[in-house]
Each structure stands twice: as C-alpha cells, then as structure tokens.
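Sanity check

After download, print the first record. It should look like this:
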Amino acid sequence: MCFHKSYRQLLILFFFLLLLIPTSGYAAKTRIYDAGSLLSDDEKAEIEKTLERVSTDYDTDLFILTSQSLGGITPKRHAEDFFWGNGHGTRDDSGVVLVIDMGERDVWIATFGRAIQTFENDIQKIISDITPDLTNANYAESFRKFSQQMEKPLQEITVPTFKDEIIKMSKQWPPYAIALALSLIITIGLSLNFRGKKLVTNKTYEVKDSFVLSESLDTYLRTTTTRSKISSSSGSSSGGRSSGGGGGKF
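Expected structure tokens:
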C-alpha cells in the first residue's frame, strides 16, 4: 500500500537523521602541533578549542604548526606535506595552516581548497596583525588573533548544509529535544503527504490472485527504427593539487 511505503520511507529518513548526530564519544581533531614548545598546556587547550569550533562551524580545517627547525624545508612545503599527507581537508578539501619556524623566524599561512579564494585578500593583513606578537614572544596572543581572524571571512562565504545544521543543533540541544523535533517533522510530513489522498481503494480488500486473465490478444502494428548520430567530446582535467597563502619574517 502507498501508505505503508511512504511510512517506511519516513522511518528510514528518521534513522538517517539520527546517524548524522555525533555521539558523545566524538573526538575533536588535534589542531595545534607545538613542536616548537611555544605554548603552555592551558594556552594550547584554549586556542585549540577556538580552532575546533571555527573549523566545525565553517567546514574548514584549521591548524597551527610550530617548529624549532624545519631542516631546510620551506614553510609552504611543510604545510602542504602536513595537510595532504595526513588527509586533512573538509568536503571540498578546504583548510588553513599557520606555520611558525623558530629557526628561520618564518611565519607562513597556507590555504587549501575553498580557503584559497576566501583568504586571498586577507593573508597579508593577518600576517601583519600577528607578527608583532610573534616578534615579542607573545605566541599565545598571536595564535588567538589568528584563530579569531579566521572566522569572519569564512562566515561570509559559508552556506551550511543540512548535515551541518543537524550537527550544530546536536551540540546546542539536549538529546530529548532533538528526538522531539524529529518526531514533529515526521508527524507533519505524514500529515501533509496524505492530505486529500484516498487511503482505501479497490485494492484494499481485494484477495490476492483472485483475478485471473483467461484470454489475451497481441496485435502487431508496425516497427519504426530511428537512427541518431552520437557525437563525442574530449576534455582534460588536472589531478594536481595546489595551495595558496603568504608569509614573512618575525
């Protein structure tokens, strides 16, 4: 019956929505790799919390890497090796990596995916804003500014998906409120789906296989053949990856 089919579909949708909701065991990514030992544990936890929130809210992976020496590798290459080598990046491979090399006094912001265009006009301003604190060894304050300045450009261009909204709701609402909201959605969906429809038809009480076709007749009319030319086109796409960004000295 149509009713049962639609009801099953809505139940499937309900359980699918439940799967989108993160469990309490969800583990956030490590956002700061402080090989340069520039932060205390409390500072790292505080800044990492901000990076995780912005990364999740705006679907862009944010990281900070510090090092006493990169061993001759450029900050740009270091960021790319870290980001691509560890499979980071969101659904469109978007991300931003701040690299601090204490050995060469280099600061570099690398952008990936959608973030390349998002921060194209902001990189040098962000570098200028965080460099004085790096020069004065106020590393935590520099990283706080970096984390905060990531949010506004991302906020302006990010259009949240349905899954993003479900995940965000799951973090703000208690579980029973989410269950109630989903139940209401399903109830309203059922009501709208069957408004004005006949739920009882001639098929409702018909005994299965009670109708038997005793005679059939096939009449040949004609055969029509249609020929169409199928044109083909060729194109090429690059499988390479690229990054954007900029940097300076401190």
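If your output differs, re-run the checksum step. Summary of this record's structure: Confidence is low (pLDDT under 50) at residues 22-26, 223-239.
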